[in-house]
Write a structure and sequence with these properties.
Largest sheet: none
Distance between the termini: 5 Å
Strand content: under 5%
CATH architecture of the largest domain: Orthogonal Bundle
Order of helices and strands: HHHHHHHHHHHHHHH
Helix content: over 70%
CATH superfamily of the largest domain: MetI-like
Number of strands: 0
């Protein structure tokens, strides 16, 4: 097990260095000057040169890249070129919102996706199976931005014309509530402080963004669960369990589902990593203050330190999530062991 963790840590460091180099050169190809964007079109040449020198952008590219990697290895991700705030502080401020949104979306996907997949497999080649498969295909096909706007219109805009306030359209919590941060996850912090009305309000704000973001993972999880269950339900040990008189519920949940979980766990891990990477469209539609919106603004402003920090965060999260998935394999299937 120790060798497994050491291998993953080395791989994580290699991935982060490679991502840093790639994003560094990619951003240099994007038109525009971050200094000009920050100072505006009316800045003088002397002001531009002075700010460029103070930020080290007048040095050769290899000096800039080398210094950034050395500082990053020591935990210093630099400062944003737009407001001079430390990148690590900005990521710490925005990332919890993305975590909360991604976890909410995955809860929606798992709670509805796994049961739909099981039902479709148990009722294979029936109307129920066809309906479930069609819904899964529809969920994958619907663009996130269209679904988000439709949910806002149907559940927020239209009810407001009749004096109803079904769901909020922006933010994480209403302004009337003030929750002192502990974990910076608003719902959890409210519960820890015993502010149950605030927790319900934060959950109320989370529902529409979570459903919007969780639709595609829900459809994928349902399809993978159905496929895995179909493979397992045709196995000899399933027929043996039924022949011994085991109830259908026990056969499905204890024997079939557990052995079909490995591909499902894989998909859940991959989708969680992708969602934590920043749901730009969903965060933009619902004015959700997450890393996705932060990254979009950083790219628009050619804020290279901030973009690199966001990309490094995405890569680190993805590697960590996949490591957790590998460990969950062993929990789901005792035959899997890591030396």
């Amino acid at each position: 097990m120790l060798r497994f963790f050491v291998n993953r840590i080395v791989r994580l460091i290699a991935v982060l260095i490679a991502i840093t180099v790639i994003s560094f050169f990619f951003l240099r190809l994007i038109p525009g000057d971050p200094i000009t964007i920050r100072l505006g079109d009316h800045a003088t040449a002397q002001e531009i040169a002075a700010l460029r020198a103070s930020m080290g952008l007048d040095r050769p590219w290899y000096d800039q890249l080398g210094l950034y990697i050395v500082h990053a290895l020591h935990g210093d991700l630099g400062r944003s070129t737009m407001d001079q705030q430390p990148v690590s502080q900005k990521l710490a401020a925005y990332f919890p919102a993305t975590v909360e949104l991604a976890l909410g979306a995955m809860c929606v996907a798992i709670i509805f996706g796994v049961p739909l997949g099981i039902v479709a497999a148990v009722r294979a080649r029936t109307v129920v199976d066809a309906a479930t498969t069609s819904l899964a295909l529809l969920g994958v096909s619907i663009p996130v931005f269209w679904l988000g706007w439709m949910l806002v219109y149907i559940f927020s805009v239209v009810p407001s014309h009749y004096g109803l306030n079904l769901f909020p359209i922006s933010g994480r919590i209403s302004l009337i509530y003030s929750v002192r941060p502990i974990t910076h996850l608003v719902i959890l912090d409210a519960l820890l402080h015993g502010q149950f009305r605030a927790a319900l309000d934060a959950l109320w704000h989370l529902i529409l963004p979570a459903v919007t973001l969780g639709t595609i993972p829900l459809a994928i999880i349902a399809k993978i669960t159905r496929s895995g269950m179909l493979d397992v339900l045709g196995s000899d040990y399933i027929r043996t369990a039924r022949a011994k008189g085991a109830s259908e519920w026990a056969v499905i949940t204890h024997h079939a589902l557990r052995n079909a979980l490995v591909p499902v766990i894989t998909i859940i891990g991959l989708q969680t990593g992708l969602l934590l990477g920043g749901a730009v469209l969903t965060e933009h539609i619902f004015a959700w203050p997450g890393v996705g919106r932060l990254t979009f603004d950083a790219i628009s402003n050619r804020d290279m330190p901030l973009v690199n920090g966001c990309v490094l965060l995405f890569a680190a999260v993805f590697v960590v999530v996949n490591t957790i998935v590998d460990l969950l394999y062993a929990a789901a299937n005792p035959r899997i062991r890591y030396a």
